[in-house]
Design brief:
mainly alpha; 266 residues
Length: 266
Protein backbone atom coordinates (compact mmCIF):
# COMPACT_ATOMS: atom_id res chain seq x y z
CA UNK A 1 0.00 0.00 0.00
CA UNK A 2 1.44 3.35 -1.02
CA UNK A 3 1.73 5.78 1.88
CA UNK A 4 0.46 9.28 1.20
CA UNK A 5 2.93 12.02 2.24
CA UNK A 6 1.71 13.92 5.27
CA UNK A 7 2.70 17.35 6.55
CA UNK A 8 1.50 18.83 9.82
CA UNK A 9 -0.18 22.20 9.25
CA UNK A 10 1.26 25.00 11.35
CA UNK A 11 -1.08 27.34 13.21
CA UNK A 12 -0.68 31.08 13.01
CA UNK A 13 -1.50 33.43 15.86
CA UNK A 14 -4.46 34.59 13.76
CA UNK A 15 -5.74 30.99 13.77
CA UNK A 16 -5.45 30.97 17.57
CA UNK A 17 -7.32 34.26 17.75
CA UNK A 18 -10.14 32.75 15.72
CA UNK A 19 -10.21 29.71 18.02
CA UNK A 20 -10.75 32.08 20.95
CA UNK A 21 -14.24 32.54 19.55
CA UNK A 22 -15.05 29.13 21.03
CA UNK A 23 -14.32 30.54 24.49
CA UNK A 24 -16.53 33.55 23.82
CA UNK A 25 -19.38 31.24 22.86
CA UNK A 26 -18.84 29.28 26.09
CA UNK A 27 -18.93 32.56 28.03
CA UNK A 28 -22.17 33.44 26.27
CA UNK A 29 -23.70 30.11 27.27
CA UNK A 30 -22.60 30.69 30.86
CA UNK A 31 -24.30 34.06 30.93
CA UNK A 32 -27.40 32.69 29.24
CA UNK A 33 -27.77 30.09 31.99
CA UNK A 34 -26.55 32.50 34.70
CA UNK A 35 -23.78 30.11 35.77
CA UNK A 36 -21.45 32.88 36.88
CA UNK A 37 -18.48 31.22 35.16
CA UNK A 38 -17.84 33.80 32.45
CA UNK A 39 -15.03 35.57 34.29
CA UNK A 40 -13.32 32.29 35.19
CA UNK A 41 -13.54 31.09 31.57
CA UNK A 42 -11.92 34.29 30.28
CA UNK A 43 -9.18 34.20 32.92
CA UNK A 44 -8.56 30.52 32.22
CA UNK A 45 -8.34 31.14 28.47
CA UNK A 46 -5.93 34.05 28.97
CA UNK A 47 -3.74 32.05 31.35
CA UNK A 48 -3.76 29.11 28.94
CA UNK A 49 -2.50 31.38 26.17
CA UNK A 50 0.25 33.00 28.22
CA UNK A 51 1.40 29.88 30.06
CA UNK A 52 1.58 27.61 27.04
CA UNK A 53 3.36 30.16 24.84
CA UNK A 54 5.85 30.79 27.65
CA UNK A 55 6.35 27.05 28.15
CA UNK A 56 6.82 26.59 24.41
CA UNK A 57 9.70 29.08 24.31
CA UNK A 58 11.22 27.73 27.53
CA UNK A 59 11.13 24.13 26.31
CA UNK A 60 12.61 25.16 22.96
CA UNK A 61 15.50 26.72 24.90
CA UNK A 62 15.92 23.68 27.18
CA UNK A 63 15.76 21.20 24.29
CA UNK A 64 18.43 23.17 22.43
CA UNK A 65 20.85 23.34 25.38
CA UNK A 66 20.17 19.80 26.68
CA UNK A 67 21.69 20.48 30.11
CA UNK A 68 20.55 17.89 32.67
CA UNK A 69 20.25 20.42 35.50
CA UNK A 70 17.87 22.64 33.47
CA UNK A 71 15.72 19.62 32.70
CA UNK A 72 15.57 18.61 36.36
CA UNK A 73 14.78 22.21 37.29
CA UNK A 74 11.81 22.13 34.90
CA UNK A 75 10.61 18.90 36.51
CA UNK A 76 10.91 20.32 40.04
CA UNK A 77 8.96 23.41 38.98
CA UNK A 78 6.16 21.14 37.72
CA UNK A 79 6.04 19.31 41.04
CA UNK A 80 6.18 22.52 43.11
CA UNK A 81 3.32 24.11 41.17
CA UNK A 82 1.29 20.90 41.41
CA UNK A 83 1.79 20.69 45.19
CA UNK A 84 0.86 24.35 45.65
CA UNK A 85 -2.25 23.85 43.51
CA UNK A 86 -3.42 20.83 45.51
CA UNK A 87 -2.95 22.64 48.82
CA UNK A 88 -4.66 25.78 47.54
CA UNK A 89 -7.80 23.87 46.60
CA UNK A 90 -8.35 22.57 50.12
CA UNK A 91 -10.42 24.24 52.83
CA UNK A 92 -7.36 24.48 55.06
CA UNK A 93 -4.33 24.99 52.80
CA UNK A 94 -0.95 24.89 54.50
CA UNK A 95 2.75 24.71 53.76
CA UNK A 96 2.85 21.32 55.50
CA UNK A 97 0.26 19.94 53.08
CA UNK A 98 2.18 21.33 50.10
CA UNK A 99 5.31 19.53 51.28
CA UNK A 100 3.43 16.26 51.77
CA UNK A 101 1.94 16.49 48.29
CA UNK A 102 5.31 17.39 46.76
CA UNK A 103 6.93 14.39 48.43
CA UNK A 104 4.18 11.98 47.38
CA UNK A 105 4.18 13.18 43.76
CA UNK A 106 7.98 13.21 43.58
CA UNK A 107 8.23 9.62 44.77
CA UNK A 108 5.24 8.27 42.82
CA UNK A 109 5.85 10.12 39.55
CA UNK A 110 9.64 10.04 39.79
CA UNK A 111 9.80 6.28 40.24
CA UNK A 112 7.29 5.77 37.43
CA UNK A 113 9.22 7.85 34.93
CA UNK A 114 12.55 6.36 36.01
CA UNK A 115 11.22 2.83 35.53
CA UNK A 116 9.82 3.60 32.08
CA UNK A 117 12.70 5.68 30.70
CA UNK A 118 15.57 3.63 32.11
CA UNK A 119 14.21 0.07 32.24
CA UNK A 120 11.54 -0.13 29.55
CA UNK A 121 12.45 2.44 26.89
CA UNK A 122 16.10 2.83 27.96
CA UNK A 123 16.59 6.34 26.59
CA UNK A 124 20.08 7.79 26.07
CA UNK A 125 21.09 10.02 27.71
CA UNK A 126 18.96 9.50 30.82
CA UNK A 127 17.85 13.14 30.78
CA UNK A 128 16.73 13.20 27.10
CA UNK A 129 14.25 16.13 27.33
CA UNK A 130 12.03 15.00 24.44
CA UNK A 131 11.06 11.98 26.55
CA UNK A 132 11.62 13.04 30.15
CA UNK A 133 9.71 16.33 30.24
CA UNK A 134 6.53 15.24 28.38
CA UNK A 135 6.30 11.97 30.31
CA UNK A 136 6.90 13.66 33.63
CA UNK A 137 4.37 16.36 32.79
CA UNK A 138 1.64 13.80 32.11
CA UNK A 139 2.16 11.71 35.24
CA UNK A 140 2.60 14.76 37.49
CA UNK A 141 -0.57 16.35 36.13
CA UNK A 142 -2.64 13.24 36.73
CA UNK A 143 -1.05 12.66 40.14
CA UNK A 144 -1.94 16.24 41.06
CA UNK A 145 -5.61 15.64 40.25
CA UNK A 146 -5.56 12.38 42.20
CA UNK A 147 -3.91 14.07 45.18
CA UNK A 148 -6.57 16.79 45.19
CA UNK A 149 -9.36 14.20 45.31
CA UNK A 150 -7.59 12.07 47.92
CA UNK A 151 -6.95 14.93 50.35
CA UNK A 152 -10.42 16.40 49.91
CA UNK A 153 -12.12 13.05 50.52
CA UNK A 154 -9.97 12.11 53.51
CA UNK A 155 -10.40 15.51 55.17
CA UNK A 156 -14.16 15.63 54.59
CA UNK A 157 -14.65 12.04 55.79
CA UNK A 158 -12.71 12.62 59.01
CA UNK A 159 -14.49 15.90 59.70
CA UNK A 160 -17.91 14.30 59.16
CA UNK A 161 -17.13 11.11 61.11
CA UNK A 162 -15.14 12.69 63.94
CA UNK A 163 -17.41 11.24 66.64
CA UNK A 164 -17.15 7.73 65.22
CA UNK A 165 -13.36 7.99 65.16
CA UNK A 166 -13.31 9.10 68.80
CA UNK A 167 -15.51 6.15 69.80
CA UNK A 168 -13.20 3.75 67.98
CA UNK A 169 -10.18 5.22 69.77
CA UNK A 170 -11.97 5.05 73.12
CA UNK A 171 -12.53 1.34 72.57
CA UNK A 172 -8.79 0.78 72.21
CA UNK A 173 -8.32 1.07 68.47
CA UNK A 174 -5.25 2.72 66.96
CA UNK A 175 -5.48 5.83 64.83
CA UNK A 176 -4.79 3.83 61.67
CA UNK A 177 -7.51 1.33 62.51
CA UNK A 178 -9.95 4.15 63.27
CA UNK A 179 -9.50 5.78 59.85
CA UNK A 180 -8.78 2.70 57.70
CA UNK A 181 -12.14 2.88 55.90
CA UNK A 182 -11.74 6.61 55.25
CA UNK A 183 -8.24 6.09 53.85
CA UNK A 184 -9.65 3.42 51.56
CA UNK A 185 -12.41 5.80 50.45
CA UNK A 186 -9.84 8.52 49.71
CA UNK A 187 -7.73 6.14 47.64
CA UNK A 188 -10.77 5.04 45.65
CA UNK A 189 -11.79 8.63 44.98
CA UNK A 190 -8.30 9.39 43.70
CA UNK A 191 -8.12 6.38 41.38
CA UNK A 192 -11.64 6.20 39.92
CA UNK A 193 -11.12 8.94 37.26
CA UNK A 194 -8.02 7.15 35.95
CA UNK A 195 -9.80 3.78 35.91
CA UNK A 196 -12.75 5.34 34.07
CA UNK A 197 -10.35 6.77 31.47
CA UNK A 198 -8.74 3.37 30.98
CA UNK A 199 -12.15 1.75 30.48
CA UNK A 200 -13.11 4.01 27.56
CA UNK A 201 -9.78 5.05 26.03
CA UNK A 202 -9.80 4.66 22.27
CA UNK A 203 -13.59 4.18 22.20
CA UNK A 204 -15.07 7.31 23.75
CA UNK A 205 -11.96 9.48 23.61
CA UNK A 206 -8.57 9.61 21.92
CA UNK A 207 -5.96 10.78 24.46
CA UNK A 208 -3.90 13.90 23.86
CA UNK A 209 -0.52 12.27 23.31
CA UNK A 210 -1.88 9.74 20.84
CA UNK A 211 -3.77 12.44 18.95
CA UNK A 212 -0.70 14.66 18.85
CA UNK A 213 1.48 11.88 17.48
CA UNK A 214 -1.04 11.02 14.79
CA UNK A 215 -1.35 14.69 13.80
CA UNK A 216 2.43 14.90 13.53
CA UNK A 217 2.47 12.02 11.05
CA UNK A 218 3.43 9.13 13.35
CA UNK A 219 2.03 5.73 12.46
CA UNK A 220 -1.23 5.11 14.38
CA UNK A 221 0.13 1.77 15.62
CA UNK A 222 3.23 3.43 17.06
CA UNK A 223 1.06 6.11 18.65
CA UNK A 224 -1.18 3.43 20.16
CA UNK A 225 1.80 1.61 21.70
CA UNK A 226 3.02 4.78 23.36
CA UNK A 227 -0.47 5.61 24.58
CA UNK A 228 -0.82 2.19 26.20
CA UNK A 229 2.48 2.80 27.97
CA UNK A 230 1.28 6.25 29.08
CA UNK A 231 -1.99 4.91 30.48
CA UNK A 232 -0.15 2.28 32.50
CA UNK A 233 2.30 4.92 33.74
CA UNK A 234 -0.51 7.20 34.85
CA UNK A 235 -2.37 4.40 36.63
CA UNK A 236 0.71 3.38 38.60
CA UNK A 237 1.75 6.94 39.40
CA UNK A 238 -1.75 7.86 40.59
CA UNK A 239 -1.95 4.76 42.78
CA UNK A 240 1.53 5.25 44.27
CA UNK A 241 1.20 9.01 44.85
CA UNK A 242 -2.24 8.81 46.44
CA UNK A 243 -1.18 5.84 48.61
CA UNK A 244 1.84 7.75 49.95
CA UNK A 245 -0.14 10.96 50.45
CA UNK A 246 -3.08 9.35 52.25
CA UNK A 247 -0.77 7.41 54.58
CA UNK A 248 1.12 10.58 55.46
CA UNK A 249 -1.87 12.92 55.60
CA UNK A 250 -3.98 10.99 58.13
CA UNK A 251 -1.20 11.21 60.72
CA UNK A 252 -1.59 14.98 61.07
CA UNK A 253 -4.99 14.38 62.68
CA UNK A 254 -3.58 12.40 65.59
CA UNK A 255 -1.01 12.70 68.34
CA UNK A 256 1.56 10.00 69.02
CA UNK A 257 -0.77 8.72 71.74
CA UNK A 258 -3.49 8.06 69.12
CA UNK A 259 -5.66 11.00 70.18
CA UNK A 260 -7.43 13.36 67.81
CA UNK A 261 -5.81 16.76 67.50
CA UNK A 262 -8.75 19.10 68.04
CA UNK A 263 -6.95 22.12 66.56
CA UNK A 264 -6.89 20.45 63.15
CA UNK A 265 -10.68 20.66 62.97
CA UNK A 266 -10.78 24.32 63.97
Amino acid sequence: MQQIPYTLLDLSFFDLALSAGLILIAVGLSRLQQLGLGRELLIGAFRTLLQLIAVGYILKYIFALRHWYLILLAVFVMIAVAAHTVSGRQRRPSKELSLLVAFAITVGSGFTVFLVTQVIIQIEPWYEPHYLIPLMGMVVGNSMNAATLAVERLDSELAAKKTEVEVYLALGGTSRQAVASYMKSAMKAAMIPTINSMMVVGIVALPGMMTGQILSGTSPLVAVKYQILIMYMIAFSVAASSFILVNLRFQKYFTRDHQLREEVFG
